[in-house]
Amino acid sequence: MTLHTRENVFYPPVGIVHITSQVAHLVAPHLGGKQSIHVNTSAQPNSHPHLGTVTTLMTAFAIGEYLGRHFNLPVKLTFDQLENAPGDKRCEGGIEYQKSLGDCISESGISLADQYMESFHWVFDDLSQRTGIPYQLCSYQDFQAKRAFRLNLLKILQRQEEFAPFLAPAAQTIRFRFPCPKCSWVDKSSQTVRLVEVSEHRAVLSSQCFQHGDHQIVLSETSTDFIDTNTPLRDIAKGGALIEEGRESNALMVMCDGGDWAGVWNMQIFCNGITRLGYPYTELPFRFFAPIITDWSGAKFSKSLYVRSNAYEYLPEGLANLQKFLSVYGKTGFEKLWQEVSSWPKDPKKLFRNYSIDYFKLVLEE
Fold first, then answer.
1. Which pLDDT belongs to residue 114?
2. Tens-place pLDDT, residues 200-219
3. Considering only CA atoms, which of 46, 54, 81 is closest in space to residue 340?
């Protein structure tokens, strides 16, 4: 008996599917006179996008297309480029330092972030053309400069003892950090970061570089000093900033992220954090999570830098990253991938589940 066939693909209902037959049913109560839909997604450009990243980006566009057509509203999509993610690391004096993707220059003379973003641009251009959804890219450099984002960071900084237990349950250290102005190395775990002074409207922070000693920044709604954050801190401050944007534009704010950010993370970090900042639960962005792509053991199909070199060498080479995907499967394979993913928002049973690498091998080989 051959198990890997379409006839043996099942869609058993999960919790939410028992009470709705359309994804739009879940969104409708949140619409309330909104004039547009704004979808937000993000990723670290630390490699060419692999299958999981591509399907997440496709899910964001597919959800936007589906909701726009169902509610007859204009849709736009923003991609937050996280070029502040680690591009290089080193340990000095027992402290781990990192240099961001945006500050690491490749052999071609551009940053690692810009080098890998070339593949992302291709994906966005293709999906925008397919769906008619315009998109814009927002660098972390630009996002951290937004007034609402900085004000939310300031509020968390002023109440570190309250936020630390769930933002950093192990280390109890909230990771406000900023690069050395001379060499761009950052204290990754914020071990040397100190709060010099803080008031309602501003804070002064210091950190220590292993090469150049102490340096300081000022955090306020109008300051221009760059401030870096780790994922939980950014997630909360960003969510609040999206709420502020939705208020100004009267848009339904929709976030679409990978399924590994669902569940406990979404409740403990995102929802808990934003409501502690004072935003009502009813104004939280509607958050979708793309299905997780799993390996043979059920683990998330991840970038090799998070597992082990050659961890996925048993897989067809084309699934490793977009460049190899296109060389193996071509644009026809990308079309098959889109036809699969674009069907998910139309059926809750397809959207609210995970898919294995073997399943996508079946899709691509049909």
1. 95
2. 899 999 999 999 999 999 99
3. 54
Identity of the residue numbered 361: K
Calpha distance 274→236 (Å, rounded): 6
> Are the C-beta atoms of residues 347 and 291 closer than 8 Å to each other?
no
Q: What is the pLDDT of residue 305?
A: 46
Contact 175, 235 (CB under 8 A): no
Number of residues in the chain: 366
Are 279 and 240 in contact, with CB atoms under 8 Å apart? yes
Mean pLDDT of 277-288: 95
| Three-state helix/strand/coil letters over the chain | CCCCCHHHCCCCCCHHHHHCCCHHHHHHHHHCCCCEEEEEEEECCCCCCCHHHHHHHHHHHHHHHHHHHHHCCCEEEEEEECCCCEEEEEEECCEEEEEEHHHCECCCCCEHHHHHHHHHHHHHHHHHHHHCCCEEEEEHHHHCCCHHHHHHHHHHHHCHHHHHHHHCCCCCCCCEECCCCCCCCEECCCCCCEEEEECCCEEEEEEEECCCEEEEEEEECCCCCCCEECHHHHHHHHHHHHHHHHHHHCEEEEEEEEHHHCCHHHHHHHHHHHHHCCCCHHHCCEEEEECCEECCCCCECCCHHHCCCCCCCCCCHHHCCHHHHHHHHHHHHHHHHHHHHCCHHHCHHHHCCCEEHHHHHHHHHC
Mean pLDDT confidence for 109-122: 94
The neighbouring-strand residues paired with 136 are 78
What is the structure's pLDDT at 309?
60
Is 287:266 a contact under the CB 8 Å cutoff?
yes
